[in-house]
Write a structure and sequence with these properties.
This protein has 63 residues and is mainly alpha-helical. It has two helices and no strands. Helix content is 76%, strand content 0%. Helix 1 crosses helix 2. The relative contact order is 0.20.
Length: 63
């Protein structure tokens, strides 16, 4: 059960962080592993904050 909740949290946090942090921006990196690991770490740390904000933005209808 814990594994399912963790996978759901990771998916929701990744979606929310993409919606708030990386939306409408262009990032250029030479190392893809560094880029995606940075995104993953930020989503794990900031997920508790970004998930409610992204849900509110989605409900309000703001892109």
């Amino acid at each position: 059960m814990v594994a399912i909740l963790m996978i759901a949290y990771i998916a929701a946090a990744y979606w929310a962080t993409n919606k708030i942090w990386w939306s409408k921006k262009v990032y250029v990196y030479s190392n893809a592993t560094y880029f995606y690991m940075t995104r993953f770490i930020i989503c794990m740390v900031a997920g508790f904050v970004t998930i409610p904000i992204a849900l509110l933005l989605t409900l309000v209808g703001k892109n």
